[in-house]
Amino acid sequence: MSDTATHRHHAIDYIEIPVTDLDLAKRFYAEAFGWQFNDYGPTYAGIRNPHDESAPEVGGLNLKEQARGGGGPFVLLYSADLDRSVEAVAAAGGKVVEGPYEFPGGRRFHFTDPSGNELGVWSER
Question: Which residues of the chain have pLDDT under 70?
Fold first, then answer.
């Protein structure tokens, strides 16, 4: 998750798919769709951009004990100013449920909207 020139502020930027078996999921998506991955340890694999390997990843497989009940993939938005995005979410009636926290590509937080849908927002360091 880098190269700010290709990211657009508050646009859908990255999709995380919760999986209960990372190796099985990688094998499935590779066989079914030809996806390739960047491994980041035993619990996460980034989905490479299918159009340009030097472009930012388009998503990731995230090992969880169970897939999100009814929630499906996890949508991440990009922010040019993460702290202001946290403030904007709270001011609009959303609830920050995790973070902000550091991760290898930058910082991020998760929030729920008034209907209870959980999304995330990330930014580079």
Answer: 1-5, 67-71
Using DSSP's 3-state secondary structure scheme, residue 44 falls into strand
Torsion sign over Cα 110, 113, 116, 118? negative
DSSP SS3 for 70: coil
Closest CA to 1 of 94, 102, 71, 87: 102
Q: What pLDDT is attached to residue 71?
A: 63
Going along the chain from its start, the domains and CATH numbers come out as: 4-123 (3.10.180.10)
How big is the CA angle at 85 (ends 65 and 1), to the nearest 5 degrees? 55
The per-residue pLDDT for 54 is 81
Q: What's the token pair of residue 2? A: 């880098």
Going by C-alpha positions, the residue among 54, 21, 27, 10 that lies closest to residue 35 is 27
Residues in the chain: 125
* pLDDT for the residue numbered 7: 83
